[in-house]
Amino acid sequence: MKNIAVFNLNLAGMAFRFYLMMAAVIIFGFLGQFTIAAILGYALAISFILGVSFRKTTKKAVAKGESQLRKRVHERTIKKAA
């Protein structure tokens, strides 16, 4: 399961995506594929500007998150009942 988070990318990741974008645009520009260069460059630019991170979520982390969510819901119901 992939977890996509916005504004959750470190500086090294942002720099890597910037250089990847520039390399893709320059390479496809020299090859004459301007449409591909524009589309790929735009997608990479938006991903590094927004700081989008794609991280794989383990089953253990998902189970932990679900248990914390259930705990919060249980606490809210207790507060409403009181």
Defining key terms:
82 residues, mainly alpha, two-stranded antiparallel ribbon, 3 helices, 2 strands, 10% strand
Give me the number of helical elements.
3
List unreliable stretches of 5+ residues. Answer: none
User: Whole-Å distance between the termini?
Assistant: 38 Å
* Integer count of domains: 1
Instruction: List the strand order in the largest sheet.
Output: 1-2
Secondary-structure-derived class: mainly alpha
Main sheet specs: 2 strands, antiparallel
Fraction of residues in helices?
over 70%
Q: How is this structure best described in words?
A:
- This protein is mainly alpha-helical and 82 residues long.
- The chain has one domain.
- Helix content is 73%, strand content 10%.
- It has three helices and two strands, in the order βααβα.
- Strands 1-2 form a two-stranded antiparallel ribbon.
- It is rod-shaped.
Lay out the secondary structure.
Blueprint: E1 2-5, H1 11-30, H2 34-50, E2 53-56, H3 59-81
Antiparallel strand pairs: 1-2
Can you describe this structure in just a few lines?
The chain is mainly alpha-helical and 82 residues long.
